[in-house]
Design goal:
alpha/beta, 34% helix, 225 residues, 27% strand, six-stranded mixed beta sheet, Rossmann fold
């Protein structure tokens, strides 16, 4: 088994190439992330860290370079295989939570399982287990508008774990939370990394997030510094 769950080699990203508005966002990124590692990617706004995370998560194609997940070059996958890999191997946590407002916490987690072909019975049982894991066993039948920001982010964490991915990618997961709530969310993520061995990659501009990680990668102006 490849010891590196996630690798990037020579990643470049150019938006609007060849035009007057051309923007070079990433300029030759190389990184390797070991299985079970907790990595924080730190950088100021506009440094390219969100673009890098989207490329690592196979949501965006690089202009140049290659991404490897479990040693497999994702460039070799067609769209259906790429979608399957995202669904099975990668869990996403976003700053904006991205929950379905008309669905309960339980239903929001169930949906992630149902779209991957799991039965209703299995999806419900798994969603209940995950919401208990993040401390929401008494809030699972509430819709997002009845939950605090921290509770909504914990629903998002539970959803990211639905298909038992090997990698969890977080885009400023505490960015919309106050310090105390953000620290609680970070502790949940740290515990998941430590106890369940999930590989965790979080991007942030907050140095306090980096203090909880095993390793910090700093990015500035599209380059690792």
């Amino acid at each position: 088994m490849n010891n590196f769950v996630l690798e990037a080699k020579g990643i470049e990203k150019v938006f609007n190439p060849g035009e007057d508005s051309e923007v070079k966002v990433l300029k030759g990124i190389d990184l390797k992330i070991k299985r079970g590692e907790f990595v924080a990617i730190l950088g100021p706004s506009g440094s390219g860290k969100t673009t890098l995370l989207d490329i690592l998560g196979c949501l965006l194609k690089p202009t140049k370079g290659n991404v490897f997940i479990d040693g497999l070059d994702v460039e070799e996958l067609d769209e259906s295989d790429l979608a399957r890999m995202r669904g099975e191997k990668i869990g996403f946590i976003f700053q904006q939570y991205n929950l379905i407002q008309s669905s309960t916490a339980l239903e929001n987690v169930e949906i992630a399982l149902r779209v991957n072909g799991k039965s209703k019975i299995f999806a419900t049982k798994r969603a209940e287990e995950l919401l208990k894991l993040v401390g929401l066993e008494k809030r699972m039948h509430h819709v997002p508008s009845k939950l605090s920001g921290g509770e909504q982010q914990r629903v998002a964490i539970a959803r990211s774990l639905a298909n038992d991915p090997s990698i969890i990618l977080g885009d400023e997961p505490t960015g919309n939370l106050d310090t105390k709530t953000g620290d609680r969310v970070l502790k949940i993520l740290k515990d998941l990394n430590k106890q369940k061995k999930y590989t965790l990659v979080l991007i942030t501009h907050d140095p306090s997030v980096g203090k909880m990680a095993n390793r910090i990668i700093r990015i500035k102006d599209g380059e690792i510094v």
